[in-house]
């Protein structure tokens, strides 16, 4: 698949996700105290050169010059996070970066857009312990909210790199251990199942609705059906389940979207569905890559 088409799609997708007014998220009408639309604009554009490098890695693997284990996913993610952090002072796109780097590599290797999720899974399976160590360094740079301490392979433990090396923890093993705590990891080991499901739903909805309406409908469906792991980490499982039930009230016609948005924001950013926003960013990138043309 043509590299610049991939790069442009995975630059535009996250920008659209940030701009479109979805309930509970930063958008062009609403900010949080420490996170604004401008953080997303600066952070997402800053990784374009790393997306280019990811396409080069995919090309080298496709031509047989690199093995899957030589993709250096962890280092690419770390460098992308460094780029984003260098131009703004928040963490707008760590989850997006972690999702898009393996998938961009996979899209170059794959014959078709629909095959790339499985190829990305294979890249994760063939990753190395070094990839995990570099990924941990990326987490430390991004410093996402809600990272628990005292867990196995604690990101901030001074001995964690020795433990990762001793136990041979590659990205697949890390994802298996951590899937319940973060949707990114579930996507890695499940062939990007939720991202592709959301992409296909967007593709269906955009045949009937404009882009904003389609994204809004798809996002509320996501909120109603999938617990957001960022909310779980920051506010607890009960809050994430409450968000799901409240979103379902919108689908059932018992609550307005504005009321849902107010509910999600009444505790600051504790109910910010950031993990599902990351899924939407990837789904939008796939939609653009699939040939979506803007229709107002």
What value does the average pLDDT take? 96
Number of helices: 16
Output the radius of gyration.
18 Å
Order of helices and strands: HHHHHHHHHHHHHHHH
Number of strands: 0
Strand content: under 5%
Biggest sheet architecture: none
Distance between the termini: 28 Å
Structural class, by secondary structure, is mainly alpha
Shape: globular
Helical proportion, percent range: 55-70%
The residue ranges in which pLDDT falls below 50 over 5 or more consecutive positions are none
Q: What would you say this structure looks like, in words?
A:
The chain is an all-alpha fold. The protein is 65% helix and 0% strand. The chain has 16 helices and no strands. It has helices at residues 3-19, 37-45, 48-62, 73-87, 94-109, 116-125, 129-142, 160-166, 171-178, 183-189, 193-205, 211-225, 229-235, 237-251, 257-265, 274-289. The longest helix is centred in the N-terminal third of the chain and has 17 residues, at 3-19. It is globular and about 55 Å long. The mean pLDDT is 96.
